[in-house]
Write a structure and sequence with these properties.
- The complex is a heterodimer of chains A (633) and B (353).
- Chain A has 633 residues and is mainly beta.
- Chain A is built from 4 helices and 29 strands.
- Chain A is elongated and about 100 Å long.
- Chain A starts with 16 loop residues before the first helix and ends with a strand.
- Chain B has a domain of 201 residues.
- The chains are: A mainly beta (633), B mainly beta (353).
- The interface between A and B is large, with 189 and 144 residues.
């Protein structure tokens, strides 16, 4: 609907002042009211991308050559419907909810610039090179032109209801939103290859309260003759369009937002309108071209605003223009942050031999007590954002340790007693221990190349006991594998993304022994923003949106963060995401934590406790920062 | 700026005292005003770009627990820990020795022509000659044959659908404090006792290369024809340290106090804590801006294929030990000597849908 209108000057109409002054005054009011909104823009949408970086995908995944990665695009805090309770109710979609649309998908991997496939570290064809049964192949990362024909790659996007809104075990995918196959013929041409591949104009509306899951499936990576392949350096970029929205403002409503800006002091993101004067002719006065109430004067006044261009958004230092006319100058954004990727065996296992491949864990014969799996990502920023939500995607996807082949008569990749069962060399079940805890923290930092150094916390998640064991009691059992407990205090969803989910080691129905039940590949957890006692909108109790952005002299003073002046002093240079999975009982390491529980749970020989159970699934985990970004230049 | 018939933006109509006027001109002018305000072109927005962030990075396999300098390729030593893989790093040279043994192209006599024997432009580093090095002396000439040292590239690529701006590339090579307990990643970014010709022993390493290139529109698979948009090489890596301050080795209790434990989980050693040290290492920022500057500000045309590459060296045995190739079982694995963090920042315009 048009924002301003006018009376047409039809032939023979008596010319009245309103014919001229009304539309000009209306235009002025639009700008002085800072009311140029997305409905009156020719380009009312802003792109954002969910960018997933995967260092490699090999044949040891389960199913072979498959990786799945879930994410969610929940509404920004102001659009998030009132908080409910896990597992109950349905989401509400207000009419004002900005829409999100999937526009394109870009997919690439590194072929070394050749029409060839890349040999895996598990290339074991006996008559080629010096190859090992369990990796370390001399042919790793080399070109194989003969095998590029195996690279039919299916990529797809699925959706499912979130457990938060009632989806129940086994948490299966529900709908394929989009998929395509990149045939090997497009990757094997000498003159042109579709790498990077893109599909555009997809135009699929996205439900913000559903879980989305991206899948890469290349079954040709596993070869029975040992000509195993890898897709190195996968880059997935899903481009979405979101409607422009108003930027956040207010000292109490936004944490760490600049007090001052180009528009003046104590603004906290609020805008200052331009000063525009349109003087309509008085009643009975003849219309004039010039003069204070002249037609030309008024048109020029409006024209000057457009010639100087309409202002809005932030510059690179978190600063605002002196005056602004644009109402909707912000947009939805996602920063996808990988964690625990590129590990030695694809995932991280609780077995000492494989656990010791992760740093700081000690030697495989002498694991460090209390040591946890620590990882962090440092994300330098050059523009300003307000963080609205943070979501952890935790991975339990199984994999085959060292691509072992389940051959009972074969040689296991580890000697006894570390792996007593030759056909069980897979990381197939979640580490069975109640003594496992997880902390994931999000911070903002300052001090790169500077003479100061500081951090401030933005959000934190602390959970424990991933299997919801109840020491001294029998549940959970295979009859109720979907119990929730201390691990699930911020749970959004559980996702069974393949036909080969991991298993949970549970008590049997009688409570006197162990049994297995299918678990799920992934979990989504909300990472509450600081302070967690606040009542801002989201899945769970969390704090108000948090501004983060480089500052300068004018924008260094900020509103409080977690009730106090932020330690970054208004000069954020990076966002940092840290994660620590650790044995929660003092003096233990993961190995003993698992063995103790396995013994308790009824395995008389503690056999299963020595097998390589899963601490982190194949391909690692992600943290998604759901942000509002701003128009900039 | 394109030529136009009048100085106005919103309407071409002008009204002046003493000149003719009719209703149509006023009607046209008001129509222009209403149309412009009701349907603001994106070019009327002073700021019309939004940032898009591509984050990547990982903690590599621990070099501290490697029990072999290479894997037992015959069978794999049972239980002993070897360097299991070096993804996503791959050698920069495409030649017969880089083709899987026993397959087409592995022999020089095979009927195969490499599309891109040199897949990166301008990535040469001091002391490394992946394509071999010829040496002329007074009385002899040694032709270029075998590579001298190696270079490994990590390449990320995207199809850029719409006109964009490459704003920044940030690469952080994170290492541990040298005195931190269980310090694991210890690349000093310094040459060893035998530096490349022309450099001093134990001087700052210059072997890291960062580059971004766009494939040619007319020869998309010919990397010789690619447009190098930005290239940084032969710089002293240690001149870009994360911080010039002597940051503490762990968090609380150390001096100076960099407040690492201002958010959890904090690095350090205690129960339920990690053992990683504080953030050490280098940050190479292409596009880091001083006041008034605009970052890299490199326009990327629509339907471009953008490739961002990082290249690390692996020096010959004679040049080891050094930062990338330390003593011990991980000496041949330069990709294990630091944690990786890379962020690419692009700008894209608002769109109509």
């Amino acid at each position: 609907m048009a924002k301003i209108s006018r009376k047409k000057l039809a032939r023979g109409t008596k010319l009245m002042p309103g014919h001229v002054s009304d539309p000009l005054v209306a235009a002025k009011t639009q700008m002085t009211g800072i009311d140029i909104n997305r409905d009156q823009m020719k380009a009312p949408m802003a792109p954002f991308c969910v960018n997933l970086s995967v260092p490699f995908l090999g044949p040891a995944s389960l199913p072979a050559g498959t990786i799945t990665i879930p994410f969610a695009l929940p509404p920004l805090q102001e659009d998030f419907d009132a908080r409910g309770t896990f597992g109950t109710g349905a989401p509400v979609y207000p009419g004002t909810l900005p829409q999100i649309m999937l526009k394109s998908v870009s997919f690439s991997f590194d072929q070394r610039g050749e029409p060839a496939a890349i040999a895996s570290q598990f290339w074991t064809q006996s008559d080629t090179g010096v190859t090992g049964k369990y990796g370390y192949s001399s042919e790793q990362a080399k070109l194989t032109y003969e095998d590029v024909t195996k690279l039919d790659i299916k990529i797809s996007l699925h959706e499912k209801d979130q457990a938060y809104f009632g989806d129940a075990y086994p948490y299966k995918l529900q709908k394929e939103l989009w998929s395509t196959v990149i045939p090997e013929s497009t990757l094997s041409g000498t003159a042109l290859r579709a790498n990077p591949f893109i599909q555009t104009d997809i135009d699929i509306a996205i439900d913000p309260y559903k879980t989305l899951l991206f899948t890469v499936h290349c079954p040709g990576l596993l070869d029975t003759a040992g000509r195993n392949l890898t897709l190195p350096s996968i880059e997935v970029s899903m481009k979405f369009l979101g409607e422009l929205v108003q930027r956040d403002s207010g000292e109490a409503a936004v944490q760490n937002i600049p007090d001052d800006g180009g528009s003046g002091a104590d603004k906290f993101g609020a805008k200052t309108a331009p000063s525009i004067t349109i003087t309509p002719p008085d009643a009975g006065d003849p219309l004039a071209a010039s003069g204070s109430d002249g037609v030309n004067t008024s048109v020029t006044t409006i024209d000057d605003q457009f010639t100087a261009k309409l202002q809005g958004g932030y510059n690179r230092y978190g600063d605002t223009p002196p005056t602004e006319a644009i109402k909707d100058d912000a947009a939805y954004d996602v920063i996808a942050v990988p964690l625990y990727q590129n590990s030695a065996n694809g995932g991280i296992s609780a077995n000492a031999t494989f656990l010791a491949t992760w740093p700081y864990m000690g030697d495989r014969d002498d694991l460090e007590a209390n040591a946890g799996l620590f990882d962090r990502r440092i994300i330098p920023i050059h523009h300003s954002y307000t963080i609205h939500h943070a979501i952890l995607a935790w991975n339990w996807s199984p994999y085959r340790i060292l691509n072992a082949d389940w051959d009972p008569g074969g040689t296991p990749p580890m000697a006894d007693p570390a792996a007593p069962i030759a056909n069980a060399q897979g990381a197939l079940w979640v580490a069975p221990s109640e003594d496992i805890a997880l902390k994931v923290g999000i911070g903002i930092g300052t001090g790169m190349g500077a003479d100061g150094f500081g951090y401030a916390e933005v959000g934190e998640l602390a959970i424990n006991n991933p299997n919801n064991y109840a020491p001294g009691a029998t549940p959970p059992t295979p009859g109720d594998p979907d119990t929730t407990g201390d691990w699930d205090t911020s749970l959004i969803d559980r996702i069974t993304s393949t036909d080969s989910p991991p298993a949970s080691m549970l008590w049997n129905a009688a409570g006197d022994g162990y049994a297995f039940a299918p678990k799920w590949n992934w979990e989504l957890h909300s990472i509450p923003l600081t302070p967690t006692t606040d009542s801002a909108n989201g899945y769970y109790v969390q704090g108000d949106p948090i501004f983060v952005g480089p500052g300068w002299t004018t924008t260094k003073d900020r509103s409080n963060l977690d009730g106090a002046a932020p330690d970054t002093g208004g000069a954020e240079q990076w966002i940092e995401v840290r994660s620590l999975l650790y044995p929660s009982q003092a003096g233990k390491n993961f190995d003993t934590a698992v063995a103790d529980v396995v013994a308790d749970i009824g395995d008389p020989n503690d056999t299963l406790g020595k097998l390589p159970s899963i601490l982190v699934g194949y391909g690692g985990c992600y943290v998604y920062l759901i942000c509002k970004k701003h128009l900039t230049k | 700026m394109a030529w136009k018939a009048n100085p106005r933006t919103i309407t071409k109509e002008q009204f002046s005292e003493g000149t003719t006027i009719d209703g149509n001109r006023i009607d046209n002018a008001m129509d222009d005003v209403v149309e412009r305000v009701n349907s603001v072109p994106y070019g009327d927005l002073r700021k019309r770009w939004v940032p898009i962030t591509y984050v990547a990075g990982w903690t590599p396999q621990s070099p501290a627990t490697l029990e072999m300098s290479s894997g037992d390729t015959a069978e794999s030593d049972k239980g002993e820990i070897a360097g299991t893989h070096h993804w996503p790093w791959m050698r920069v040279l495409n030649t017969n020795s880089e083709v899987v043994s026993g397959t087409l192209g592995a022999l020089a006599t095979d009927d195969l022509r490499f599309s891109n024997p040199y897949r990166l432009k301008g990535a040469q580093a001091p002391g490394v000659f992946p394509y071999g090095r010829s040496v002329a002396a007074e009385t002899s000439y040694t032709p270029s044959l075998d590579p001298v040292g190696e270079q490994f590239a990590w390449t990320r690529s995207w199809f850029i659908e719409r006109p964009s701006i490459l704003s920044a590339i940030d690469l952080i090579l994170e290492v541990d404090h040298v005195s931190a307990p269980r310090a694991t990643y210890l690349n000093s970014f310094v040459y060893g006792d035998v530096p490349p010709t022309g450099y001093a022993a134990d001087s700052n390493d210059r072997g890291l290369v960062i580059t971004a290139a766009v494939d040619s529109e007319f020869a998309r698979e010919d990397r010789n024809m690619a447009d190098v948009e930005v290239l940084r090489r032969r710089f002293q890596i240690n001149n870009d340290k994360v911080s010039p301050l002597p940051l503490a080795k762990t968090s609380a209790g150390d001096s100076p106090l960099p407040a690492y434990d201002d958010f959890a989980p904090a690095p350090g050693i205690s129960h339920a804590a990690s053992i990683a040290s504080t953030v050490q290492g280098v940050r190479i920022s292409l596009g880091h801006i001083a006041k008034g500057e605009e970052g890299l500000n490199i326009p990327i045309h629509q339907r471009a294929r953008l490739r961002v590459s990082v290249v690390i060296p692996s020096y010959t045995a004679a040049m080891r030990p050094c930062g990338w190739n330390p003593a011990g079982n991980s000496g041949a694995y330069p990709w294990f000597q630091q944690k990786m963090h890379m962020t690419v920042t692009m700008l894209e315009e608002v769109v109509s849908g």
